[in-house]
Amino acid sequence: MSKTSMQAPNVIGRARGPRGFGGPVVKAKDKKQTMKRIWRYMEKQKAALIATIIFVIISTLLGLLGPYLIGLIIDQYILPKDMAGTFKFLIVLAVVYTASSVFTWLQTYLMVRVSLQTIRNIRQDLFTKLQTLSIKFFDKHPHGDLMSRVTNDIDSLNNALSQSVIQLFSSILMVAGVTIAMFSLNWVLAIVTLLIIPVMVYTTKQIITYSSSNFIKRQRDLGELNGFIEESISGNEVISLFGKEEKMFNEFSVVNERLRSSSIAADTVSGFLGPINNFINNLGLGLVIGAGAFMTLQGSASVGIIAAFVAYSRQFFRPINQLSSLLNMFQSALAGAERVFEIMDETPDIVDQVNAKDIDSLKGNVEFTNVYFGYDDHKTILKNINFQIRAGEKVALVGPTGSGKTTIINLLLRFYDSNSGEIRIDGTSIKEYKISAIRKKVGIVLQDTFIFSGTIMENIRYGRLEASDEEVIAAAKMASAHGYIKHLPNQYQTVITSSGSNLSQGQRQLIAIARIILADSDILILDEATSSIDTRTEIEIQKGLNRLTEGRTSFVIAHRLKTIENANRILVIDQGEIIESGTHLELLSKNGFYNQLYRSQFTLNEVR
Amino acid sequence: MNDFLMERNLSAEQVILSLMPIILFVVNIGMVAGIWMGAIKVNAGSLQIGVILAFINYLNIMMNGLMSSSNVLMQITRSFTSADRIGQVLDTNIDITEPANPASLPEIRGEVEFKDVNFSYSKNGEYVLKNISFTAKSGEKIGIIGSTGCGKSTLVKLIPRLYDADSGEILIDGVNIKEYPLENLRKAIGFVPQNATLFSGSIEDNLFFGKEQATNEEMEHAAQSASALEFIDRFEDTFAHEIKQGATNLSGGQKQRLSMARAFIREPKILILDDSTSAIDAISESAVQQAIKRNHPETTVFIVSAKISSLIDADQILVIDDGMVAAKGTHQDLLVASSIYRDIFATQNGKEEVSYE
Ligand SMILES: Nc1ncnc2c1ncn2[C@@H]1O[C@H](COP(=O)(O)OP(=O)(O)OP(=O)(O)O)[C@@H](O)[C@H]1O
Ligand SMILES: Nc1ncnc2c1ncn2[C@@H]1O[C@H](COP(=O)(O)OP(=O)(O)OP(=O)(O)O)[C@@H](O)[C@H]1O
Ligand SMILES: [Mg+2]
Ligand SMILES: [Mg+2]
Fold it and tell me: What is the pTM of this model?
């Protein structure tokens, strides 16, 4: 992922990983494929789409009828001074124009619906996909960039769909119709008008090939910008504490400037299209009038025909102009769509096996046999982990930081799969269960508590969605969270801002604990669940947790060893290996690592 | 949410998209009327047929113009709402302001004094801190302990002016902190926030956050003090090791130790550790404590912790209860004077248990 930073020598290159998936080569990979996929989404609304196309045909035909009628009126009625006829046909003309407006409105209305629905489906799929991807995927991709794909990239696709599809059809129809009408009026003048087409096609093509790579680059830079913003907002406290506002500002300027220049590249090139095409149009118009005048003098054309041709040639070039700028817009949309599909194509590396087992409940026997694991291929974190836990046991994992405790939990929950060895729950390899089933039956309080924006009630209820308000409150009481919640301005209905920034760290942990109490899982995991909670509160919670863990297998990770003294078994982990195991008393009398760890708690300043 | 977004988009788009057909209609009807008027005049002989041609042509040009301006209008309408939202952010008043004429002050020594400080997060909300008063002499170690949510983090956040007190004064070296230029104030403070926020980039980049252009020795020294060198050395690329966004590729304790190293490298006059050893094992923590004592003897250190063992040898421990200083003194003083402190001590079963063997 770090290719881009090398080609772009700048401050950011050093300071932060580049964002986005593509390497330095910015090129639409397979436009046809991408378009086909967009089509597959649109297909679902065939009925509306067909109706739209019918409306497009009608309104286009009506639009074509207009100039034809005008020519007719001038030649047949105005010139011969037939006022009654003129009036009659003008009424017809008015009706035609009115109907054409109505159908134009109908078609856009329908199309907007179709495209928004399509976009909605794509967005939904993208989101669903994001949810199935493993933690590993999110480890690798900056969140801002992912968000940019769900918002910006999809947006540019929306723009293109809602406007271009209709215009594409009506333009093509219009061009075809005008061509036919022109030929039927006067084939020589028609050919003169068409002469200009190859010139336009050529220039458009040139410009588009050039701009398409710029669009891809622009979307990518936008993703990077978003990533940067996301990180600096979430880290804003640290930025001000360390007075790094200016540094962030400078780095932002670089990313921002890069986006500006790629946008300029994308937009100016495509901006040339309009003026160039306009020029070519006028050239065409001049040709037509010149030739028409000449022919009228010769008697092979009439003033009415010239009038009709003037109107036609405008109608002819407008859609062609539109087409070419449409194609351009499509480039930008395709660039976005590609980034969206890129994610949809990620194969989740952890998937359910075919006929994976669903389960109603777990007994809670957990067994690790010869488990090896590393987050990267070249570095093994866990080495030969073996243990067997009987249902209902309370197991503690202790060890220095970074020894691999959280990693063991990650494997148990299948956030990652082990490199070798076997993990079994109730005698069955965890790979044979449905992932969702495991995660539903195993309750966990993570080291980093996650709080959603929403009310306290909603946040606790997240543990079990169907729980009643009373159950939520009971869980909060058991977690000693009730005490502070009832002092909040709106109690359980107090809205927590994103990531819980208006709660203290310990209060956040209490919510996470209430959540797991509510969840009523078969296996419980508490990873540093009470690390920021004062010891008096902790003791209260402990009572609740003891009741909860009774008869259930539970894993507790804690550095405050007091919390785990009563565990049935303590596994001491150091550098990815289990170096000691036993009960608190056994381990203390062993006079090994645990003993040292335990004693150092009380005599912080005497050790070493 | 997604559905809601779709509905809203739909209605906005529809209003705007109706504009096009309406323009089309109006102009075309104009065309019909024009031809009719023209026909009458041609009939009366007061107009040449060419004028009608020109008229039609002009109307067509006008229509093109209107069509494209309706497009522009569409974009403008959209941009208004966006501009509004951007404006809202830009117009937000900066609540932490620089002093108007910052006094040219000698270098900060690190004496911190709180005088009757009150603070609340929202204007009409309950006070989170009430009547906080204490003095920390330069070079003292101050411990802060208290129950969950009692206001410990809030208290220490006032020192670097992440928030300003509602009333009362905070003085450093006898001068109100509002008189220091923000940059100088924060430069003198090394802060380790309760949750360790690191940035994507290398370990080195993150340490540079604490001190730009720090030398290798300085980095190693700071990492050593924070007991982080031990794991950094285990990475093949040591200080160049890449940290992912949100530091997901580090363990909880590793994050905390880096966050401490980042503060140590500043050589601050005031060091604030907000529960920064909660995810660190006792052995590493003891090493960190030793290092602070050894390397920063002149630094005023604030240690927020739930563990008495982390504060036990502080010169002064503040027991915070419900936003107030319930008691202050050394460990020994408090064991005698404060029932809250004794309670806390009891839950951590003191040294008795160690006499186990
Ligand atoms: N997502 C990841 N990608 C790469 N390496 C990782 C990842 N998560 C953890 N590591 C590394 O794996 C090792 C073990 O981490 P783990 O989180 O299991 O430690 P821990 O025992 O839980 O420590 P702590 O007590 O600090 O939470 C650490 O060296 C860490 O740097
Ligand atoms: N940004 C904020 N906006 C509103 N209220 C807040 C905010 N931050 C904290 N609070 C509230 O202020 C009170 C004190 O919070 P603070 O973070 O200072 O507690 P603490 O003593 O550090 O607790 P802990 O030991 O859990 O970290 C809490 O009741 C909390 O809900
Ligand atoms: Mg961990
Ligand atoms: Mg706190």
Answer: 0.71
In chain A, positions 397-416, which contact chain B (CB-CB < 8 Å)?
A: 398-402, 405-406
Q: Which residues' Cβ are closer than 6 Å to ligand 1? A: A 139, 375, 381, 399, 401-407, 447; B 248-254, 279
| Confidence bin at A136 (pLDDT 50/70/90) | low
CA-CA distance, B154 to A505, in Å (whole number)? 11
**What are the chain A neighbours of B160 within 8 Å (beta carbons)?**
240-241
Q: What is the pLDDT of residues A513-572, one digit of tens each?
A: 888 888 878 888 888 777 777 777 777 787 777 777 778 888 888 777 777 778 788 888
Cα-Cα-Cα-Cα torsion B238, B239, B242, B245, nearest 10 degrees, comes to 130
Q: Quick check: CB of A568 below 6 Å from ligand 2? A: no
Mutual angle of helices B2-44 and A83-132, in 10-degree steps: 160
Buried b (16+ CB within 10 A) or exposed e, A247-269: bbeebeebbbebbeebbebbbeb
Q: Which residues of B fall within a CB distance of 8 Å from A562?
A: 348-349
Is the CB of B251 inside 8 Å of chain A's CB atoms? Answer: yes
Task: Please state, as a whole number, how many other Cβ atoms lie within 10 Å of the Cβ of residue A579.
Answer: 14
Q: Does A531 contact B at CB distance below 8 Å?
A: yes
Closest-CA distance, A80 to chain B, in angstroms, reads 9
Three-state DSSP at A542 gives helix
Residue spans of the domains in chain B: they are 2-91, 112-348
Q: Model confidence over A189-205: pLDDT tens digits? A: 788 778 877 887 787 77
Residue B121 Cβ contacting ligand 2 at under 6 Å: yes
Residue A503 Cα: closest atom of ligand 2: 31
Q: Which amino acid is at A429?
A: S
Burial category of A229 from C-beta neighbours within 10 Å (exposed 0-12, middle 13-18, buried 19 and up): middle
Residue A295 has a CB neighbour count (10 Å cut-off) of: 18
Residue in chain A lying closest to B280 (CA): A401
H/E run at residue A444: strand A442-445
Whether residue B194 and residue A70 make contact (CB cut-off 8 A), yes or no, is no
Tokens (6 digits) for A286: 């001049």
Query: For residue A196, what are its two tokens?
Result: 């200009």
Number of Cβ atoms within 10 Å of the Cβ of B296 = 19
In which band, very low, low, confident or very high, does the pLDDT at A29 lie, cut at 50, 70 and 90?
low
Distances from the Cα of A423 to the Cαs of A111, A419, A427, A431, B332, in angstroms? 53, 11, 9, 8, 50
Residue A63 contacts residue A102 (beta carbons within 8 Å): no
Copy the structure tokens of residue B110: 């690190």
Q: Using an 8 Å Cβ cutoff, are A216 and A23 in contact?
A: no
Q: Looking at per-residue confidence, does B4 or A324 come out higher? A: A324
Please state the CATH superfamily assignment of the domain spanning residues B112-348 in this structure: P-loop containing nucleotide triphosphate hydrolases (3.40.50.300)
CA distance A36 to chain B (A): 23
Q: What angle do CA A198, A208, B76 make, to 5 degrees?
A: 110
Q: How far apart are CA B38 and CA B57, in angstroms?
A: 14
Token pair 């400078």 in the structure block, residue:
A250
